[in-house]
Amino acid sequence: MHLIALSVRAAVLALGLLLASAAMASEEAQLIDSINAYRSQAQSCDGKGTPELPPLHSDPRLLLPVDGVGDLQAALAAAAYPMMNVQAISLSGPRDAQSAMQALRESFCRVLLDPQFIDIGINRQQRDWRIVLARPLLAGRMGNWQAEGQNLLKQINDARALARQCGAQAFAATAPLSWNATLGSVAEAHSRAMANGNYFAHKDRNGHTPGDRAELAGYAGAAIGENIAAAMDSPQRVVEGWLASPAHCANLMNPQFREFGAAYAVDPKSDAGIYWTALFGRP
User: Fold this and answer.
1) d(CA 242, CA 245)
2) What's the pLDDT tens digit per position in 127-180?
3) Domains detected in the chain
4) Hey, is 161 helix, strand or coil?
């Protein structure tokens, strides 16, 4: 009987440790969800407006020790993460994900809203947190902007063929988009402007909106929508990010849009390296 009691107490202790570990992991997952919800909406940070951003992808290679001891680049190299740029944030004091998110919004909004970062890892010990945001090296070679624009079109038409939920909005499956050369050229020019000018915004340096740029190029459509992305090195990743972002997803699934043009541009000197623009038009 004594041995049975010991076994029961050991089992209860093990269960308690397991539940505590799960609760900690849950707080980390909740913080990632909160960060992605924050990024999914247009924000104001340090007096500047920022566009909606796709969600960050949780990468276990970015789960670094909370104490922050050691070289950050060496740690990521040891974890086999092909880093191009990285930012690590250390917090001490927040008791849960909600408190940590408040601290991040107050002191690190520029990091959270930096479009170059596409991966995230969060580690936590009690009230100490380490949040790592990173951009990997561009992987592989891509075709020219026209070819990748067409690849993006195929990915988007595959997505439009299925009913889906974009945040609070439900969309039925809808007709495929057709390629429009004018919209493609406008998209390429904006991607190139963002890459060479090292900025990420729907409004260009001349103050032109997507509709302005399309009209100036001779597009006579009745309505224009635009999605932009940065740091992602394949059409598949771009579309996955947009589908996970309510505003981008809504543009992509909008049944009023019938025409499409898209392009990417690369500038190694820019923060994000690669920039994408997709234009949706209603004739």
Assistant:
1) 5
2) 999 999 999 998 768 899 999 999 999 999 999 999 999 999 999 999 999 999
3) 27-136 (3.40.33.10), 145-282 (3.40.33.10)
4) coil
